[in-house]
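Project standup — Tuesday

K.O.: blocked on the structure for the chain from last sprint. Re-posting the sequence here as requested.
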Amino acid sequence: MSVRALSFGAVAEAYERFRPGYPEEIFDLVAAYAGRPIRTALEIGAGTGKATRLFSGRGVEVTATEPDEAMLAELRKHVPAGVRTLRATFEDLPLTERYGLVYAAAALHWTRPEGRWTRMAALLEPGGVVASFGGPIRLADPAVERAVQAARAPYLDTDEIPSPDGTPPEQEMQWPGTELERSELFTDVRQVVAGRRWTMSAAGYVGMLSTVSAYLELAPADREQVYTQILRALPATVEIFADITAHLARRTRP
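H.V.: unblocked you, prediction finished:
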């Protein structure tokens, strides 16, 4: 796991405050795809428990794993007592238990590609489901987006994470669906998009940016400068596009 992947602990409280949660629609589409009750689930890179709360709140016995101690401490403040928590990277998880579902919310791209799907399959019951969901949060107004890009340019070319396998953004099937389709360990790969739109304050938007890894890698003085410049470029409220793309696949039966 990269240093960038472990940069969120310094802003764990801000992550909880400013990052949006996940709608019930995400659980419903995972459950419908599974086609059977989901009793146990392993969550990879659970962060502060945004998705943990969604799945545990629907009766799933969740084991939430997170490598960053500060993020895990924040998670424990917000999830039900019945959620099992474990400080570990995906690569360090013991392969001694199997689950009906293994899922990651905006976290799978932080796992190492070597052996990723072999390890994933080993953590799943035969016929079990893997789910990955997330997506960038974008400004809806192109003029506002251009203003923010100009404010950010002296510090960052982009604040987005490129596709881990180089899939171009115009291709219909996106990562990790592309890798799942190539793997003999999984079948019935699907990609589903759930639309999300909302309005937030300019300060809230900058607060959310303060939890994005690209900004966390900047020197502290540069971070404060870019936040100030972006805030100046924004109107009082901004409209946001935050579609969630979910990728689903089923472990092939041995």
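K.O.: great, moving the ticket to review. The first helix runs from residue 12 to 18. The domain at 4-137+161-196+242-251 is CATH 3.40.50.150 (Rossmann fold).
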